[in-house]
Design brief:
Helix content: 55-70%
Number of helices: 10
CATH class: Mainly Alpha
Number of domains: 1
Largest sheet: none
Number of strands: 0
Structural class: mainly alpha
Strand content: under 5%
Distance between the termini: 6 Å
Shape: globular
Radius of gyration: 17 Å
CATH superfamily: Rhomboid-like
Order of helices and strands: HHHHHHHHHH
Length: 209
């Protein structure tokens, strides 16, 4: 059984557009789409522990909407689109936005704590938080056992690849793990809410097949 969750898919497109607009702002400030200066990223809200410690705590959130390259934006946008189509209707748009922001904030805090002196930006912490929500759902009885096993393998492989790349590339695994952990915790807390939402969605005759 696959539920088509198009209804309620509003916040995800808005986040995708916001991330794109912020990328275009950074590109305009730098005069190109490939090389972003540290100064411009800091000016527009990138996460940097030295400035955060000076009281610029807002960077922990604004950095979630900045990306360091076009490829960075594309990968995060694709992940957000796929996960958002499933998770936003299951949580509801308001709860989805709160979870996204909280997981992004958790990722930034983890980066701030474990990577002092390193500039970081991107939606990866928030997106790994959505993976955490998805894992919490898969570990419950919301999903059919045969699908659960198949999806757990797929999600596990994606997470392993991404975290593995962080061992060799300049990728902020601290933000990834912070977002993932917060997503799992929030997902487990919100399981009763998601079960209730799913029952209401099914009662509203969403297309099944």
């Amino acid at each position: 059984m696959i539920v088509k969750f198009q209804p309620g898919f509003r916040v995800t497109p808005a986040l995708l557009i916001l991330n794109l607009l912020m990328f275009l702002v950074v590109a305009v400030v730098n005069g190109n789409f490939s090389q972003f200066s540290t100064q411009s990223l800091l000016m527009l809200g990138a996460n940097y522990s030295n400035l955060v410690e000076q009281g610029q705590w807002w960077r922990l959130l604004t950095s979630v909407f900045l990306h360091l390259s076009l490829m960075h934006l594309v990968f995060n946008s694709a992940s957000l689109f796929v996960l958002g189509r499933f998770i936003e209707p299951l949580l509801g748009s308001t709860a989805f936005l709160l979870v996204y922001l909280l997981c992004g904030l958790a990722g930034s805090l983890a980066s701030y704590h474990f990577n002092p002196g390193i500039l970081s930006a991107g939606a990866s912490g928030a997106i790994f938080g959505l993976f955490g929500i998805f894992l919490a759902v898969l570990l419950s009885n919301i999903v059919r056992p045969d699908l659960r096993k198949e999806w757990l393998k797929s999600v596990g492989a994606v997470l392993a690849i991404n975290l593995g790349l962080g061992l060799f590339l300049p990728i902020d695994n601290s933000a990834h793990l912070g977002g993932l952990a917060s997503g799992v915790v929030l997902g487990l807390i919100l399981l009763p809410w998601m079960r209730s939402r799913l029952r209401r969605l099914l009662n509203n005759d969403l297309t099944l097949r």
